[in-house]
Amino acid sequence: MFIAVMMAATLMGTEEASASPPAEIPVGATVCTRADAQNFVMDAGYYPPKAKRLEINGSATVDCQVDANGELSRCVVIKETPPDMGFGEATALAFLKYARVKPEEVEQIGAGGWKKFTFRWKYAD
After folding, report:
1. pLDDT class for 25, splitting at 50, 70, 90?
2. End-to-end distance of the chain based on CA atoms, in angstroms?
3. 32-76: pLDDT as tens digits
4. pLDDT at 21
5. Cα-based torsion angle of the residue sequence 107, 31, 94, 110 in order, rounded to the nearest 10 degrees
6. Closest CA to 32 of 119, 90, 114, 110
């Protein structure tokens, strides 16, 4: 069920397109690639482990590079709230593995362009 919620949010989430990479990658920012996401598994009960232990909600904004097929090739965590809870990395890995950009958006952005996504996590036990 969580995957369905995640994918629906991916398609309907807050997003912004740009042709250039993030203007400033924050010092120490998490950068994930498609290769990093290969072993990532988001099952129905997945939630960032530290945030799950503390039973807190959070959000993350990632800026992702889009290839010609609409797949994401790398994502940079731009913002994570609250910090250091794992929401940023989990969002980047999930988007790299599961999200796709519509062909008409790829045409607008251009292959190699960047698209920003914000995802909100809600804890439910």
Report:
1. low
2. 13
3. 888 888 888 877 678 999 999 999 999 999 999 999 999 999 999
4. 61
5. 0
6. 90
Domain residue ranges of the chain, discontinuous segments joined by +: 2-121
Fold of the 2-121 domain:
3.30.1150
d(CA 61, CA 106): 20
Q: Give the number of other Cβ atoms within 10 Å of residue 102's Cβ.
A: 10
What are the DSSP calls for the chain, one per residue? -HHHHHHHHHHHSEEEEESS--S-PPTT--EEEHHHHTT----TT---HHHHHHT--EEEEEEEEE-TTSBEEEEEEEEEESTTSSHHHHHHHHHHHH-B--HHHHHHH-TT-EEEEEEEE----
CB neighbour list of residue 57: distance below 8 Å, 6 or more residues apart: 51, 120, 121, 122, 123
